[in-house]
Amino acid sequence: MGARGLRVTEGLSLCACTAALLIGALAAPVAARAENLDDLQRLSIDQLANVDVSSVTKTSEAISSAPGAIYVITHDEIVRSGMTSIPEILRLAPNLLVQQTGPSQYVITARGFSGNSAAQSFSNKLLVLIDGRSVYSPLYSGVYWDVQAVLPEDIDRIEVISGPGAALWGANAVNGVVNIITRKSGDTQGGLIQVGGGGFEQTVNFRYGGRLSDDLTYRIYAMDDRDLDTPSGNGTRLDDGWTKPQAGFRMDWDPGQQDDVVLQGDAYHGVESNPGSAATELSGGDLLTRWSHSWEGGASLQVQAYFDTTERATEDDGGKLTLNTFDVDIQHSFALGDRNALVWGGGVRINQYALFGPPQFLFYPQTGSLNLGDVFVQDTISLTKTLDLILGVKLEDDPYSGLATLPNARLSWRPTSHIMFWTAASKAIRAPTPFDESVVEKIGSITYLTGNPDFEAERVIAYELGARAEFSSRFTLSISAYDNQYADLRTVDPTPGLFIPLTWGNQLKGETDGVETWADLQLTSWWRISASYTWEAEHLSFVPGASGLLGVLQNGDDPADQASLKSSMDLGNRVTLDADLRHVAALPNPSVPAYTELNARLGWEIVRHLQLSVVGANLLNPEHMEAPAPAIPVPRSVYAELQWRF
How far apart are the first and last CA of the chain? Predict the structure, then answer.
C-alpha cells in the first residue's frame, strides 16, 4: 500500500476504525503468515536461517552460509505486513532507506547517497531486479518506482544485499542489490480476489492459477491500485492522484527433474496527475523466458532472455521518453575437483531509447542505442572444511566508459555449524548515462546546464567485515561493518571564466563508514520479534582545484542512523497481529526532522478461504516528512481489505 496520506473518511466502517485503535493499543510490531491461517505454517527461526538465497554468489545457498550483508523479506512477512506496493514492502528490509516523496514517488537507497533533488542528484547506486530482469534505467541509473509492481501474494522472497555486487551483477550494483523473486505458478493454484480501500486508496486484485498438464502450470493476474488526490492543509487537494492497472501471466514447465522452463510477461498503462501541469501517461510491458538444466553432481546451466519496454509522456510540454531493452544472459556452474566450485557466464544487453524533452530539457542526440556486453567468472575455493575463499571478476564493456574490470574477493570462516565470520573487498562503478553526457537544460533561451562528454564513471572500493550466528533455534543475529572509498563522484561545476553553462564534473571523493545489525527472537510459539539498527558516517570532500559549488552534500542528504522493532503475533487460530515500529534520524542539509512511525495489520480469517484485514500506516503522527521539499508530507492512513480464495 503506498503509504498515502490519507485521512480516515466516512466510507470507512466503524469496525475498521475500532480495529485500527486496537492495533495501536496493542502496538506489537510485524512478521507474516500468507495463506489461510490453518493451511500455512510460519517458518521457524531455524528455517529462516536456512532459506536458500542466490544473490550473494549466484549459486543457491542458505542465508546462514552466504558471505555478505543480506536480509531476506519472506513471502510470509510480505503478506502479513499488509503493504501492497514494492517500495512500502522494502521498508521491511533494515539495510535499506526508503523515503516517500509523493503518492507514487520514492527514494530508496542502501548505505547512503540518496541524492539531492535541488542539485539534480538522484539515487543511482542501487541495482534492482525482478526475476532476473533489471529494472534500473540506463538513462540515469535510477529506478522509476512508480512502474514497478508485483502482486504481493506472488512474491516468493526479496533478497536485499547491502554492499557492492558488481563482480556478479555489473555496473550500478554499487551500494546494494535488490532481487525480487516471484513464486512458481505451481505454487499459486486456484483463485484469489482481493478488494480493499480506505482514506484515498482503492485496490482490486485478481489471480487464477491452473494446470494444463502434469508438468505445465500457469497463472494469470490483474491488479489496480488507485490513489486519489492528497488533501492539503487548507482543505483542498493537491491534484496528485494516480492509477496504473496492470496484468500478466506466468507459465512453468517441468518436463523432468533436470529441466525447468519459465515464460512470463506483464503489461501496464497508467496516469499520474501533476499539480499545476498536465498528467503523465505511463505504459509498458515485459516478456521473459528462462531455461534451466541441472546434472547429477550439482552442475547447472541457465539461459535467460527478456524484452522490456517503457514509455513516459506528458502532453502539455511534449516531453516523452521511450526505452526498449533486449537482454540475453547465460550462466554455468560446476565443480572442479573437490575444492573448487565455479560459476561463469556472460550477457549482452541492448537499450534503444528516444528522449524528446520540453524546450527547457533536451538531450542531444535525442535517440540512441546503448549496447552493453559482459563476462564474469567466480571460484569458491574450499581451503579447509571451515574456511572458504571466493574470488570473482566481471569484465563489462560500457558504451560510455569502455571496458571496466570489477573484481571481488570474499573469505568466510565457520568455526561451528551455527556461526560464520566473513570479510570482503570489492570494486564497483556507476557507469555514465545520457543524463550525464547528453542533457541540455535551459531557462528561457539561456542554456544553464549541459552534459559532459568526458564524464567518468563514479568508483568505489569497499571493505566489509561481518558475522552471522544462530545462537539457538529461537535467536539469530547478523552484524556487518563497512568502509567504502569513493572517487570521481558527480558534481555541478561552472564553466571557467563564464560560470554558465554549468556542467557535470567528477570533483568529489570521500568515504562512508557504517554498521548494520539485525536480530530475530522467537519469544513463544505464537510471538516473534525482530530488531535492527544501522549507523553511517559520510566524509566527503572536493578534489584540489574544484569549485566547491553546491557543497559536498549535493550527492546525498542521508540520516546518520535508523532503527526498527517488529513484532508478529498469532492471537488464536484465526487472528494475527503484526506491527513495525521504525525510527529515522534527521536529514542534515536540507534539514528534515527525525521521525518515528508505526505500521500495523490485524488479520482475521472469518471462515476458511475468506479473510478480513485492517492495515494502519504511519499511526503515530497525523503526518511527517521523509525528504526535503518538493516532497510532500506523508500522512496517517487506514486501509481495510477483504480476500477470498477459491
Answer: 24
10 Å Cβ neighbour count for 641? 21
- Residue 446: other Cβ atoms inside 10 A: 9
pLDDT of residue 157: 95
Task: Name the least confident of 11-20, 310-319, 348-357, 498-507.
Answer: 11-20
Residue 80 φ/ψ, nearest 5 degrees:
-75, -15
CA distances to 66, 154, 156, 603 from 76, rounded to whole Å, are 21, 11, 9, 13
What's the per-residue H, E or C state across 67-109? Answer: CCEEEEEEHHHHHHHCCCCHHHHHHHCCCCEEEECCCCCEEEE
With beta carbons less than 8 A apart as the criterion, state whether 177 and 55 touch: yes
> How many separate helices (H) and strands (E) can be counted in the chain?
6, 39
Predicted structure pTM score: 0.91
Who's near 132: CB < 8 A, 6+ residues apart?
Answer: 288, 290, 304, 306, 329
Count of residues in the chain = 646
Q: What is the pLDDT of residue 42?
A: 62
Q: Give me the mean pLDDT over the 544-567 stretch.
A: 92
> What pLDDT score does 235 carry?
64
Question: Are 365 and 139 within 8 A, CB to CB?
Answer: no
Q: What's the farthest any 2 CA atoms get from each other in the chain?
A: 75
Q: Which of 236, 226, 321 is nearest to 276 (CA)?
A: 236
Q: Which of 288, 280, 265, 268 lies closest to 321, judged by CA? A: 280
Is the pLDDT at 185 greater than 80, yes or no?
yes
- Report the b/e string of 8-24 with b at 16+ CB within 10 A: beeebeeebeebbeebe
- How far is it, in rounded angstroms, from Cα 153 to Cα 250? 14
pLDDT tens, residue by residue, 234-251 = 667 777 788 999 999 999
Residue of 141, 138, 171 whose CA lies nearest to 353? 138
